[in-house]
Structure formats: structure tokens, C-alpha cells
Write a structure and sequence with these properties.
Length: about 450
Amino acid sequence: MKKIFLIMTAFFFSVNIISAQELVTIQQAVNAAIKNNPNVSILEENINIQKQNKRTVTGDLIPNLNFSAGWSRNNTFSKGTTVYQNGIPFVLGDQTTAKSNYSLGLNSQVVLFDGFANYRKLDLSDQNIEASVLQLEKTKYDIMMDITQKYFDVLRKDRIVYINQDNLKTSVDQLDKIKVYVEVGKKTISEVYKQDVQVAQDELDLESSIRQLEKSKVDLLNAMNDDVNKEITVEVKDVNLDMTLGDLFNIMNKYDRIDDLVKSALSKRYDYLLGIQNIKIYETQFNIAKKYLYYPSLSAFGTFNVSGNQYDEIFNTRVFTFGLNLSYPIFQGFKLDVNSQIAEINIKQKNEDLRNITQQLKADIKKSVIDLQTAYKQIEILERNITAAEQDVILSEENYRVGYGTLLDMQVAVTRLNNLRIERVNAIYNFFLAQRQIDYLSGNLKY
């Protein structure tokens, strides 16, 4: 009775704790993780920087306009001397002169033609923005999968705690029955001690599973960049443990067309799309380098200046100049040619990276489908084993009651059933996690 009282007390205490905990759904966990992740904030700022860079490139397409103003003063001192003209000496005294100059000016310049490299720079700015957006979405997508794994780990361990609680209650019930058998003289007191040891072991298993659950919650909160001391509970409805084998089989069959999954991945996966975008960026850089290498640059300029020795005479002298500048790079220490070659090499490297991503995606999808099929087969076998184990428990309990079987037989049967139930929980969560992994790899993971 004391054991039952302790278990019931612990149960009601845990219920009160759960009621005080914050319920977190997987959607809320994903949203919090994305909101709190510092890398997401950095990437969002990077997008803003790329947009500002585009404004700068756009500004290079229109004429610039600069204003200038100046003032200078020239002081000249000449020492006196004697000058001879026609043999007649003339004495010149010391002379000091001072003259000021005031000026205002406007100048403007614009590139008229450089092989249209300036317009390609604008295209490059748009491509850099798109690459930054894809990098941001890829980061969010990876966070989503990371949270899914940790959230499922909490669900898995929460269910294991429930199974261990049920197993402990069964052990305590068996202990109470054995005590009754001892009171009526059917069993010896040593049986009580043996079962009490089993109860203690089950208590330890329960306590250990509770600690593992708490650690998994810490991992989830840490992935969410939230307070790890927060008390939370997860929404168990996110995974339906009551699905039949037929339901699981139907889910598994949805993922049997690997070619379709790969095709989906190549059209939706952000890492693949980012790889394509990087190739476009390097192709544009290569195109720009080629234009600077082979095309001349033609620019127009214009200046307007006014000046005078007095500030109120500043508009007395006015000069307006305009013209064209044509330049063509003949030799610059191989700089332009090297830039072109570097861009070409980068294109080849990025194409190779893209092929590696494609190959890795195909391999990962194939392995995840195998994991899904393996988990289903494990569940199917465990269902049979659990049915047999339940019958073994009933038989061993009855044999022990009538004196035909031993306490050890009954304990082994109960322990085996409990282990099989835990294995089934692991297999079910492995099944659903493999399903989410396939969705992630094929670009279809959503919440």
C-alpha cells in the first residue's frame, strides 16, 4: 500500500507540474528557433546590404554631379634693384603685391559604353540578392529539420517515461499480490524481497527515463535559442501512435518513387537552387571580366567654372568644357586576363559542386527510404512479438499463482514485454522521423 501511495503521489505531482508547464507545438518550436537564431538575423541584414549595393550600382548608370568652391591668395615680394635702360640707371624700390582668387565649379561624368559591363553589374546585384535570399531560406529550412529531430526526441522519451510508469505500477501490483500469497502461506518471504528488488530496478528505470526526457527538453530549448530553464511540455498529438500497420504501410508507399523524390528535391531544395544561383553569379562575373578585357570604355564629361579676383567679380570669368574620353586596356600586367580566368575556374568548380550536391541528394533520399522501410518492418515484427509477450506474461503470472512457474519466469516475461513496448516506441518514431527526413531531402518539409 505504501508503494501504491508513493506512485499515486508522484503521479498527481507530475500532473500538477505538467499543468504549470508551457505547451509547445512543433510549429511554435520552429517559429521560435527561426526568430531567435542569430544566423537568420545576420543573413537578413546581408540581404539589406546587397540591396544597398544595388542602389550604388544603379547610381553608376546615371551622370554624377560634383560641386567645388575655392579661394586662394597670392602674396609676391620683389626686392628693389637698379635697371639700366639706354645706359641710364633706374632705381626700383621694394615691391609687395597681393592678389586673391575666388572660384566655383560644377563637373559631371558618365560612362556611355564599356561593353555594357555596367548593366551586367546591375544583373550581378540582382543575382547576389537572390543568392542571399536562398541562403536565408536554406538556413531556415535546416533549422526546421533540426527542431523536428529534437522535438521528436522529446516525444519519444516522453512516451518511454509513460511506459516505464506503467511498468512500475505493474511491478508494484505484483509485489502486493506476492505479499498476499505469503500471508496465506502459498509463497515464502524471500519472494517478497526478490520482487521488491525488481520494483527498485523499475523505479530506477523510470527515474533514468525522466532524466533523459529532461535532457532532451534542454536540447530542444537550446536549439530554439530559448531559456533552457523553462518548463515545457510537447504536443503528443503531433505523432499518432495509434496508427495501424495498414496506415503506416500506406504512408510508406507514398515514398516508393525515388525518381520523383529526386526530381522534387532538384526543384525545391534551397541548397541545390543556391548552387545554381552561384553558377549564374560566376557566369556574370566572367562575362563582366570579358567585357573589360575586350571592349573600350567611352565616357562623357562636362565642367563649368567661374572665377574672379574679388568675390563680387566671381562671374566675370566663366569657362564651360565638355568632351569625350575613350580608353582601351592594352596591357595592365595581365590583371584583366587573370580576373577572367579566375571567374572561369570558379564556374567549373561550382558546376562540380552542383553535381556533388545532386549525387548526395540521390544517395540520402535512397537511404532515408530504406530507413523508412526498415522502421516499418521493425514495427510489424514488434507487433507480433508484443502480442506473444503479452500472452507470455499472462501465462507466467498464472503459472506462478498456481505454483507451476517461478517468480523469475514472471519477472523475465514482464521485463521483456516492457522492453518490446519501448522498442516499438523507438521504431514508430524512427518511422515518422524517416518520413520527415525524406520530406526534408525532397524539399517538401512544411509546418
